[in-house]
């Protein structure tokens, strides 16, 4: 499973960015997709995750609830992370993940930098 993430960049606080992650095979071959992030000096944390099989249940970290939205486009084998009302503390490298039968696959990170 290969993941191609894009959409990071520099944005002012309060602004918005959308991250995209496209998987190299049918999205229906996966159990879930999502996003982790890692800020300097911090552990990697799960930001959002959406299930693929058995419906589309969604998890959000408390720190992003109400500001971030994860969604999927099955025809494009792509998952999105819409990030609104960005804060300085959202600055991190964001990693796309896919889960399949207990395995987790990682995409390359994309940098999100929020400036004041």
Quick structural summary:
The protein is mainly β and 116 residues long. Helices cover 0% and strands 57% of the residues. The chain contains no helices and ten strands.
Question: Could you explain the architecture of this structure?
Answer:
- Helices cover 0% and strands 57% of the residues.
- It has strands at 3-6, 9-12, 17-23, 32-38, 45-51, 58-60, 68-73, 78-83, 92-100, 103-115.
Features:
0% helix, mainly beta, 6-stranded mixed beta sheet, 4-stranded antiparallel beta sheet, 116 residues
Overall geometry comes to globular
User: What does the oligomeric state look like here?
Assistant: single chain
Count of individual helical segments: 0
Total beta strands: 10
Helix content: under 10%
Mean pLDDT: 96
- Low-pLDDT runs of 5+ residues are none
List the helices and strands in order.
EEEEEEEEEE
**Distance between the amino and carboxyl termini:** 37 Å
SS class:
mainly beta
Q: Largest beta sheet: what is the strand line-up?
A: 2-10-9-4-5-6
Give a short account of the largest sheet.
6 strands, mixed
Radius of gyration: 13 Å
Strand % is: over 45%
Any chance you could write out the topology, listing elements then pairs?
Layout: E1 3-6, E2 9-12, E3 17-23, E4 32-38, E5 45-51, E6 58-60, E7 68-73, E8 78-83, E9 92-100, E10 103-115
Parallel strand pairs: 2-10
Antiparallel strand pairs: 1-3, 3-8, 4-5, 4-9, 5-6, 7-8, 9-10
